[in-house]
Structure to design on (259 residues):
């Protein structure tokens, strides 16, 4: 098959030009378009597709993007969403952070689930733990939506309220508390209904107490709207957050946090 005939192929046109720039094409998508593996191999040999790794291809002349790559993972069945500080950056909350220097945080997988080409292209931290009691299906996770709700090729990203709690889960091992506080400082538009749901579903006492501790220090308005009687903060005893000799005492919020 010649290059010209490949270029005029209707299947190839759909595959090459219907998807967003920067997004790899997956074998699942090719199969859905009725493109056989044999035909895919012809496209690769002819230079129209470049194989990134098993199951993933990049179109000729395309430049891989982080969001496009994450979406490709999702299309291929790797149930991940962008969360934590990476999600806050995408939402413009942590805008002062140097883009390209922060690691991408993906939730809902293990590092072994990520293809080698992805890890090579994008420095990535993965979180496979269960921070919330929720449906594990990507589309049903609490306050995880596509970055652009009108674009089915947009990656799934934690909304700001969830991303904030995900970031606090990394304190102090992977996330400094001072920077976390700076990121929280301008978050005066946090939605209380979203936070109420997330805090009630959160499985970690540390994250819930740390959120209330920092929100109280920053006088975030959302604190007065939350019903903390429905949130499990654990025993009344103090929770000690410590690292490298420094410690932070996290009290049980009780009613005093909202009075």
């Amino acid at each position: 098959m010649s290059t010209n005939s490949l270029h005029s192929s209707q299947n190839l046109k759909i595959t090459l030009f219907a998807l967003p720039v920067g997004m790899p094409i997956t074998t699942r998508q090719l199969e859905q378009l009725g493109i056989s593996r044999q035909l895919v191999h012809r496209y690769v040999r002819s230079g129209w597709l470049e194989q990134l790794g098993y199951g993933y291809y990049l179109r000729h002349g395309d430049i891989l993007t982080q969001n496009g790559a994450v979406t490709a993972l999702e299309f291929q069945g790797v149930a991940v969403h962008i969360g934590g500080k990476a999600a806050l950056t995408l939402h413009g909350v942590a805008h002062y952070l140097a883009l390209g220097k922060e690691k991408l945080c993906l939730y809902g997988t293990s590092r072994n689930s990520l293809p080698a080409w992805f890890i090579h292209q994008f420095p990535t931290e993965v979180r496979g733990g269960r921070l919330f009691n929720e449906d594990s299906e990507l589309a049903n996770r609490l306050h995880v939506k596509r970055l652009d709700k009108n674009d089915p090729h947009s990656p799934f990203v934690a909304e700001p309220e969830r991303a904030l709690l995900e970031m606090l889960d990394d304190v102090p091992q992977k996330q400094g508390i001072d920077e976390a506080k700076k990121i929280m400082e301008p978050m005066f538009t946090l939605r209380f209904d979203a936070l109420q749901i997330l805090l009630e579903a959160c499985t970690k006492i540390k994250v819930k107490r740390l959120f209330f501790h920092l929100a109280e220090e920053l006088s975030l308005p959302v604190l007065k709207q939350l019903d903390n009687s429905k949130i499990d903060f654990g025993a009344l005893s103090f929770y000690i957050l410590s690292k490298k000799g420094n410690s932070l005492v996290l009290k049980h919020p009780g009613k005093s946090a909202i009075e």
Observations:
- The mean pLDDT is 86.
- The chain has eleven helices and ten strands.
